[in-house]
Amino acid sequence: MLGNYIIKHYGPMSHLKLQKLLFYCDAYHLAYFDTELVEDEFEAWMHGPVSRRVYDSFKDKSVLFADLSFSDLNVEDPDTAFDMLASSQKQFVVEVLDTLTKWTDLDLETATHSEDPWKMARVGYAAGDKCSVPMSKELTRTYYKQELNG
After folding, report:
1. pLDDT at residue 61, rounded to an integer
2. Taking the C-alpha atoms of 20, 44, 56 and 26 in order, what is their torsion angle to the nearest 10 degrees?
3. Number of domains within the chain
């Protein structure tokens, strides 16, 4: 699972930050390679995109703003799955992570809240409303493809 890879290589972080990093890795991978990296839908939760599957796998190990660390996880080495990606995909994902892991949780949340994929999924919901509407992978792909192409 990419989430385990991120925690192992980029250090302890909140569940909130991890979810945003997973979303951006998937979004930019969709835009660049035209295929998803995370085989799950992201839902438009109030704090930004969330993979329910990843959320469920970590919910007993973390609360929203508490840090997850690799030593807290009882998992196989995530490098094995990451190494199955093509070298161009690995390099691309590492570039995304090298940039975005420097952002704070709030920076990432604010960014996703200003972008169409999250905003469109939340149409009709107030800022503090619970929402589990899936974000469109196609809208995500086209939105971030435009961003990559300037």
Report:
1. 60
2. -40
3. 1
